[in-house]
Amino acid sequence: MTDSQTPKRTRISLLLNDSMVGQNLRVCGWVRTFRNDRFLAVNDGSTLHNLQLVVDKETTHSEILKQLHTGAAIEAMGELVESQGGGQATELKVTTLRILGGADPDEFPIQMKRHSLDFLREKAHMRFRTNTFGAVFRVRHALQYAVHTFFHEGGFYQLHTPIITGSDAEGAGEMFRVTTLDLDNLPRNEDGTLDVTQDFFGKEANLTVSGQLEAELGAMALGQVYTFGPTFRAENSNTSRHLAEFWMIEPEIAFADLQDDMALAEDCLKYVLTYALENCAEDLAFLERRELDAEKQLPQAERHEHPLRSRLQAVVDAPFEHLTYTEVIEVLKNSKPYKKKKFKYPVEWGVDLQSEHERWLVEKHVGGPVVVTDYPAGIKAFYMRTNDDGKTVAAMDVLVPGIGEIIGGSQREERLDVLKRKCAEFNIPEEHVWWYLETRKFGSAPHCGFGMGFERLVMYVTGMTNIRDVIPFPRTPLNAEF
Ligand code: 4AD
Ligand code: MG
To answer: Which residue's CA is the closest to the ligand 1 atom numbered 5?
Structure first.
């Protein structure tokens, strides 16, 4: 759109202070409001803030003014001047105005009034044009940049693990099948079972639930690696914290134990929170006000005690609490909701913690992040290292207020004989994971890692309460529109 005559487009984020006052500029964006036939508020996505454009009726064609409605895309040229009105430092005195794409005001779904998040989920193709989603997706970008920076500066290599895989790393059986077979005419063996040898890969294949097993192979040579990719889980749980397609960050480190793993997780979380606080101040301030507004409708007890940014800063400033699973069960059994029979799910050693337990622990008991370690072997994955007690594994989950589990990790079982026993116990045929077992046969070493759900991180930082509102196009049961 730039020829030798027209100046380059200047992004609005660069124009809001007075450093460019007096310059003639070209600005493009979408109209947020148009009032008094004169003032246009234009947003181009580079910042939360709109630039005010002042249109002169004498010089601007009346046909153009007629077509100016909320949602239209425009291009304007003019001089940046100090603003006459309050509310903004600068404004653009428009000399030429062009409508690039109109928006029929009777049909354009996004108006200046506050829309409910439910409504905007139905309009996910347009919700980027609201202040809330602009802020959320700018923060999401900053967080992924911070994650990459944290690991790069820490000497990690990003490893691209496969999206199509034959293995079920977590053993939860929640995989999406990948096939090119004709579903209406499936090839069968003589005994009626599916003849998978005729499928694309000659064997069963799925979308990955985790890049961990492959990341371990990388770590056992490169020393420190991490993955940051999409993961897929066909869990039929329609909750505000589960997606069928989500992004996960999985570091894996060699020559390290559970203590190192927990320290890495805490450092990582604190680094990315600090980065967001320092680099997304305006968007976070907006999201903080949004949360305060939204919580006005809630009873006092359900509102946050502290505003968003103070909560994040408090996490950065204090060391994380640590409790073993066994201690957590004790604490839960002595808790008020347990004694008053308020928990829906049982609290029993050996039974997995449910969201209600995790949230009580972090929100009511500790009031901040908690690292829970040493879970019973039976409720965790096959690859976790067996502790000396023989009953628990060297696992750690990081739980945070409002979300519950944000990180799950462990030291890995590096002893070949123990790992083979675990495979048998978990009904994992050795021939399915022969390559994984070989890392324990040749130059095995203590190593560990964790997985951080990226959308849960974005929820945590933005204060958004539904995971569908922190990923551009959510995939959940019965929902794959857009
Ligand atoms: O605890 P999970 O299942 O652990 C793993 O996948 C390990 N392989 C990680 C590792 O050690 N390398 O998942 C890790 C994190 C969870 O703590 C949670 O934040 C997120 O991934 N997560 C989900 N996020 C959104 N939707 C889902 N359905 C999720 N399932 C897990
Ligand atoms: Mg987990």
So the answer is: 451
